[in-house]
Amino acid sequence: MTALLNITVVYSPAPREVQEKSMVVHSGCTVLQALQQAEMLDIALSEGNTVGIWGKKTSPSHVLENQDRIEIYRPLKVDPKVARP
To answer: Most CB within 10 Å of its CB: which of 3, 25, 60, 75?
Structure first.
């Protein structure tokens, strides 16, 4: 019997806008497979986007653990240091 993992996939297409999808996947599932299941693979592979788990950059072949949060990072348009008042 294969164990099931609870994971979340998160993407922010614009400031103050977040798309979040909670899913159940089988043990041994990779980031790439989870993104396919969440129908967010095209977004994750878009030019300039990268993926991470809990704020740390990772590869699509990374094997997930229970309660992992996959985050899709878009490139910044403005350096946060420059944007501060």
So the answer is: 25
